[in-house]
Amino acid sequence: MPRFSPRVIDHFTNPRNCGRLEKADVAAFVGNPVCGDQILLTARVREDAVSEIAFEAFGCSASLAVASILTERLTGMALPEIAVVEPAQIADWSGGLAPDQQHVAILGADVSHRLAANYRDGTRDDIPVSAG
Amino acid sequence: MVGMPGEALRVSRAQWRRSLSDAVRAAFAYHHERNAFYRAQCDAVSPSDIGDYADLHRIPLLPVGMFKQAGAHVLLTAGLADIETEIRSTGTGGVPSVARRDALTTTRASVGIIGGYRDLFGISKGAGVFLCPSTAEVPEMGMVKVFNLLTAMLDDHRYLVRNYSFDPEEALAYLRGWEGRMTRHIIGPPFIIARFMRFLELESVSLTLDPESMIIMLGGWKQYTGRSISREEFNDKARRFLGVDTGRVRDMYGMIESNMLAIECEYQRKHVPPWCYVSIRDIADPAVELQPGKTGGIAILDALNTAYPGFLLSDDIGDVDESDCPCGRTGQTVRFRRRRQGAELGCCAVSIEKYLDSNEAVAECELVDVAGRR
């Protein structure tokens, strides 16, 4: 298996929905304090589903690609579904991740769960990252 | 040049300039032809404008901060499919700088660094305590990756920072266990070796390493708190508490975005490898190159990199010396002085220290504040 799947290469090279939504209904930030990978999602919600979403990400290529892939996959998805996204699902959406990239699937699942929880609880994350 | 940097650093100055210029010019042409983003930064300069050594400073530079940006894919000359390794460094700001290397660059850098170790350290056996996490624990951390290449030249080694905690007793036990069997070396960032020596001092432990023992460091002398470790004090303690003479205390300087690892000789001058040119730039106007001996922004032109243009303007301030070193090497030596004003304190060692400090086990080994004594 090549180190990067074609989907990861595509999203890394041509990121979708990059940036930060103004007046978002919810924001979720997850960062790995050791390796420094960071993903911020900002989203608008209509009828308990994500209607629009954007990302900012820093870190390894797989992190950046997964953040972009997440924005495509979570668009239109109901928040209860987002709350239970599994790392394996994210690895699958990514077209497969090498063993040393599996942490990115966990990061992606964590930020998805946080997005759903923050919307449910009405909390906003402090956002330490700056626009890329 | 890559396989035997020691030979390339002992040729005549004219020959060094010629071979360096040829290598850097070829690298510039390579990226200029294949990298549209970089080519767009080169509106006033093309490869045909780079004739000899005096022209190297004209090669356009990429600010190293670009490696932290989310859109860093534009820096790549190679496609992501060709990228083999991603090395990162995280500073106080928390956003990692990520350098992506393709297979050719990874091979060249590995061979070049090992060649540098062989030339400057002459190590081919012995045992080392590595006072840092292992590559298994932090597989992409640049500093650890560079240290890890040293293990190929040792008969035994141990990484002694685990889960971001360090037990100096364990380091002491390994060093004592190897006594009389192998030449013992200590490898790690200055701050943690200083902590170890502080432990020996506080516990009144007498430890004399071997005549050929070395202390090998990378990671900088500034702590995440902003305090600095005094090199003079460090050398003195290495002599008193470890029995290692100053000539065998060796620091290194590099940055993950470049394949330049400048390694100290016995005169504690950091030799720039023969595939790199260090250009000192006016801080107010980076287009202006300063003469050797003047202090300014450190720019590195690295001929090894095929993954992205290795022509970088760093956030570091320092100077170069082009006078012949008493050790017999020609070329350049570089001296890091400080970070550029406003730049975050950023390196792998700072990241390790920050997390180590959250662990109570090392609280008693806190360094004293030496900043006021410098």
Main structural class of chain A: alpha+beta
Helical proportion of chain A, percent range: 40-55%
C-alpha Rg of chain A, in Å? 13 Å
What would you call the quaternary organization? heterodimer
Main beta-sheet strand count, sense and barrel state of chain B:
12 strands, mixed
H/E topology pattern of chain B: HHHEEEHEHEEEHEHEHEEEEEEEH
Q: What's the architecture of chain A, going by CATH?
A: Alpha-Beta Complex
In total, the number of strands of chain A is 3
Query: In angstroms, what is the radius of gyration of chain B?
Result: 20 Å
Category by helix and strand content of chain B: alpha/beta
Average pLDDT figure of chain B: 90
Our count of helices of chain A gives: 5
How would you describe this structure to a colleague?
The complex is a heterodimer of chains A (132) and B (374). Chain A is an alpha+beta fold and 132 residues long. Chain A has a single domain, classed as Sufe protein. Chain: A. Chain A has five helices and three strands, in the order αβββαααα. Chain A has a three-stranded antiparallel sheet with strand order 1-2-3, with helices on one face. Chain A starts with 5 loop residues before the first helix and ends in an 11-residue tail after the last helix. Chain B is an alpha/beta fold and 374 residues long. Chain B has a single domain, classed as Rossmann fold (3-Layer(aba) Sandwich), CATH 3.40.50.980. Chain B has nine helices and 16 strands. In chain B, helix 7 crosses helix 8 (231-242). The longest helix of chain B has 22 residues, at 13-34. Mean pLDDT of chain B is 90; it is low at 360-374. At the A-B interface, helix 1 and strand 3 of A face strand 2 and strand 3 of B.
Give a quick summary of the entry.
The complex is a heterodimer of chains A (132) and B (374). Chain A has helices spanning 6-13, 61-74, 79-82, 87-93, 102-121; strands spanning 26-31, 38-46, 49-58.
